[in-house]
């Protein structure tokens, strides 16, 4: 059982890193295929790196890596070792794919600048949503906002918005063009909308009822292996009249397949009912606002 438990955990971690990597690829393609060729300055470290590229020709991938490395070293000193492996992984992989795609894509994929802003924003937002939904991060201005928040009582969300507005607004000084600034804000708005869309989708929850002859074994696996809460209900079989234990748990939809696989390993004959729920509020889920 210990081996099976390790396999399940490894599989879940692999899926998370796979989706984070896919998100990084999508985001890199959005920047290098649409935003950068159209000379649009987006938000975050990508926007800073893009301006450096327009002024000096220094590739975006290199700038993103160097800026993020500086932020990361400062954050480790100021905030401690709280960023985890996924943030470092995100920074390295993003920098690599930005460098790779910028080397391969030498011509704009779309000639219309407004379409570049829309498509680039969609891809950048989808990328961020995928990464955040799996607990990943690409560092950047997120780290800067957290460092400022430690010493000043400012909301991280407000700080990020302020930083992004300053970055995009400063693109005016590249060409003296209001049009360029507007395209930057269009990209930021579309990206933010797509992030919310994907994050909200990833928050969808399911309710699972498990009817099994091995309630203790399944309960133990759910709690210890998946680090998931579970409730044990007492019931009576309608046909047999015997007392039975029914297990009930709430989980994120993306976690449901791992739970089903685990149940199948412990009790292949278990009867399972799975249904969507409108909302779940409490620890580990949404907060009542």
Question: Describe it for me?
Answer:
With 289 residues, this protein is α+β, with helices and mostly antiparallel strands. It folds into 2 domains: 201 residues, no CATH class; 73 residues, Alpha-Beta Plaits (2-Layer Sandwich). Helices cover 64% and strands 10% of the residues. It contains 11 helices and 4 strands. The chain has a 4-stranded antiparallel sheet with strand order 2-3-1-4, with no helix packed on it. Helix 5 packs parallel to helix 9. The longest helix has 34 residues. It is elongated and about 80 Å long. The model has no long low-confidence stretch (mean pLDDT 83).
Concise description?
Helix content is 64%, strand content 10%. The protein has 289 residues and is of the alpha+beta class.
Task: Name the features.
about 290 residues; 2 domains; 4-stranded antiparallel beta sheet; about 65% helix; elongated
Strand order of the largest sheet: 2-3-1-4
Number of domains: 2
Distance between the termini: 41 Å
Order of helices and strands: HHHHHHHHHEHEEHE
Main sheet overview: 4 strands, antiparallel
Helix/strand class: alpha+beta
Count all strands and give the number: 4
Number of helices: 11
- Mass-distribution shape: elongated
> Compute the gyration radius: what is it?
23 Å
Beta-strand percentage range: 5-15%
